[in-house]
Design brief:
Helices cover 46% and strands 20% of the residues. By secondary structure, the protein is of the alpha/beta class. The chain folds into 2 domains: 2-15 and 25-120 and 246-315, Bordetella uptake gene, domain 1 (D-Maltodextrin-Binding Protein, domain 2, 3-Layer(aba) Sandwich); 122-220, 3-Layer(aba) Sandwich (D-Maltodextrin-Binding Protein, domain 2).
């Protein structure tokens, strides 16, 4: 008992010592809840690199992938609320996963504090350039002619991207077979190799292969065309009225992180997002930069959290 009290006292003193120093007094770990190479990883490393350059901080990305991005979020929830462990969250693990996973260990709107919105992006439906599918209509026609024979990959069960595919199947009244992967990169490798017919992807994950000519973008799922690939039509334009599925990325900290630290982080990220260099870099990756106050971002989180409860319920999808 005495040892336990002493340990608690030491931890409390250490916490107080860290808080007494100007923030940040040491490197900040940015938890990335997906594997290297995907959209979340790309944007996280961009933010970490540019914050390190511009603010003269040391921000270190740390990939903690698995279970649709929920493992990395859970690790952030368990971290001490000192501002030295933050996480790049997105719709997948913040507002979709809680309604899919039956035994999730965190509640996003209570266990994490919104810090800074970074960007939003449409989902894109792609196929390899050599594919027989030249348009989205080709996919729909083939799926109706031979139900469940066309395959599409995604970064994993329970992601916004997976559900975008399911919502499109429902809108088009077709049957295709979903193939989940552990992240965007392995899914990308298989669609390029022809092992799956299509991939539903975040635009940042697919952007490099689209620009190199190895992937053909059939449609984006946002309400309007992306400024990164303005030549690619929206699903809504192609006959599926009001179709709109996009995702966002933003930084979160453990609940009870001091408000002054959140304010400092938010100010630095928003200052970075306002620079022409950062704007261009994010757009080049297929996303749209967008700064917010912590309060605005928190409101977005809560609104989408409730909205996707109904979407997931309607889809009938669950994950053990």
């Amino acid at each position: 008992m005495i040892r336990k009290l002493l340990t608690s006292a030491v931890l409390a003193l250490a916490f107080a010592a860290v808080q007494a120093q100007p923030y940040p007094a040491k490197p900040v770990r940015l938890i990335v809840p997906f594997p290297p190479g995907g959209g979340t990883d790309i944007l996280s490393r961009l933010v970490a690199t540019k914050l390190t350059e511009v603010s003269k901080w040391t921000v270190v990305p740390d990939n903690r992938a698995g279970a649709g991005g929920t493992i990395g979020i859970a690790e952030a929830v368990r971290a001490a609320p000192t501002g030295y462990d933050i996480v790049m969250g997105q719709k997948d693990n913040m507002v979709v996963a809680p309604w899919l996973y039956k035994n999730l260990s965190y509640e996003p709107t209570k266990d994490l504090a919104a810090v800074a919105h970074v960007a939003y992006t449409p989902v894109v439906i792609v196929t390899r350039t050599e594919s027989k599918f030249k348009t989205l209509k080709d996919v729909v026609d083939a799926a109706r002619a031979a139900p469940d024979t066309i395959t599409y990959g995604s970064p994993g069960n329970g992601t916004t991207i997976h559900l975008a595919g399911e919502i499109f199947k429902s809108a088009a009244n077709i049957k295709m077979r979903h193939v989940p992967y552990k992240g965007s990169n392995p899914a990308m490798m298989d669609v390029l190799a022809g092992n799956v017919d299509l991939m539903v992807s975040s635009l940042p994950s697919a952007m490099g292969q689209i620009k190199s000519g190895k992937l053909r973008a059939l449609a984006v799922t946002s309400a309007k065309r992306s400024s990164s690939v303005p030549e690619v039509p929206t699903v809504a334009e192609l006959g599926y009225k009001d179709f709109d599925v996009s995702t966002w990325y933003g930084l979160f900290a453990p609940a009870n992180t001091p408000k002054e630290i959140i304010t400092t982080l938010n100010a630095e990220v928003n200052k970075l997002l306002a620079t022409p260099e950062m704007k261009a870099a994010i757009i080049a990756q297929g996303a749209e930069p967008q700064g917010m106050t912590p309060e605005q971002f928190g409101t977005l989180l809560k609104t989408d959290y409730l909205k996707w409860r109904d979407i997931v319920k309607a889809s009938g999808a669950t994950i053990e």
